[in-house]
Specification:
about 325 residues, globular, Immunoglobulin-like, 8 helices, Neutral Protease, domain 2, 15 strands
């Protein structure tokens, strides 16, 4: 405890494990998201105590973007390797799923489902299907949502165009929306557009359930801008700026881990799917200071740690396509 709030997110995460992980425990490791995604989303719920803007800012910048940067494209449930258990998919994508589910269900149904799920499985174990049953009891069929977001892989990449023409005293707005992601999933989701004009605005919502979908709306004012997903309700590249967009390789990449860890003089980066890529490496101490920068050629994955004092560090690796992951490294005295 040092008098500042820099690590409130971490306290919220770890304290929430008293409910998600300790009191309600996943029956199998393959459902570990029932602990870690819930704890990660608890960070955002804590931030919501400061206001809605702080909540959305945290969801976008601390939950959605780290997953999108990761390049991971595998399902949340049934991870195939130990590294996938403790991945951005398990933590940040899963938390994004809870955020999206809340946006669809509404606060009352969402948190009631949360409460009944917790009450039914306290001091025992649970499966993903148990959680789904409790949420569906409050809302209705959600198989379409969980099939694509939890049992499926990846996220949507939207291709959107808009046009408007005057129609008498009104204006006809045409919205075309498609999805261009390389994964096999098509993501059926309610989508929102904020239409702004001089002295007037409106929010348009419809279900995007077909590829290359066209929707036409009549509005009583001339639009000046049309913004997609203004409240960041969907995990997609739309939450990123143009320069932030990621382009993971076909099939995505695995979860980066370091070994040995703890280490003394050297450690090795293990990052499936990037073996033939150049990596930009930065090692940060916990104050955010860069202590070492390196470029690793495809033939080299060794991290030289000589001269770095003992302590805990963050290793940030950037691959081509703006794919980026971070892993913690403990350096021991030698």
């Amino acid at each position: 405890m040092n008098g500042n709030t820099n690590y409130d997110w971490l306290l919220a995460h770890e304290m929430s494990h008293m409910w998600w992980g300790n009191c309600v425990t996943e029956r199998f490791w393959t459902d570990v998201w029932l602990s870690e995604s819930f704890a990660t989303y608890s960070e955002a719920i804590w931030m919501e105590s400061y206001g809605q803007a702080e909540y959305l800012n945290y969801v976008v910048n601390n939950i959605m973007k780290p997953y999108l940067y990761s390049g991971e494209l595998f399902p949340i449930v049934e991870p195939e390797t130990p590294a996938q258990l403790w991945s951005a998919t398990t933590y940040e994508k899963g938390a994004s799923v809870l955020h999206m589910l809340r946006m669809i269900m509404g606060d009352t149904a969402f948190f009631t489902g949360y409460e009944t799920y917790f009450a039914s499985h306290s001091y025992t174990t649970a499966l993903t299907t148990d959680f789904i049953e409790h949420m569906e009891a409050q809302y209705g069929d959600l198989s379409w949502f969980f099939d694509q977001w939890v049992y499926g892989e990846g996220y949507p990449i939207y291709d959107i165009s808009t046009d408007w023409v005057q129609l008498g005293s009104d204006w006809q707005l045409t919205i075309n929306i498609g999805q261009t992601q390389t994964v096999s999933n098509f993501f059926t989701m309610p989508v929102e557009f904020h239409v702004e004009g001089t002295g007037a605005d409106s929010v348009i919502t419809f279900l995007n359930d077909t590829q290359n979908q066209e929707e036409i709306f009549i509005i009583p004012f001339e639009p000046t801008t049309v913004e997609f997903d203004p409240d960041s309700r969907i995990l997609s590249t739309a939450v990123m700026g143009v320069e932030e967009h990621t382009y993971p390789p076909q099939g995505g990449v695995g979860t980066m881990y370091l070994g040995p860890n703890p280490a003394t003089l050297s450690s090795t980066i293990n990052w499936q799917g990037t073996w033939n890529m150049e990596l930009q490496i930065r090692i940060y101490d916990l104050s955010g200071r860069i202590v070492r920068k390196r470029v690793l050629e495809p033939s080299s994955r060794n991290l030289d740690l000589a001269g770095i004092p003992a302590g805990t560090y963050l290793v940030d690796a950037i691959a081509p396509g703006n794919v980026r992951q971070t892993a913690r490294l403990v350096i021991l005295a030698n």
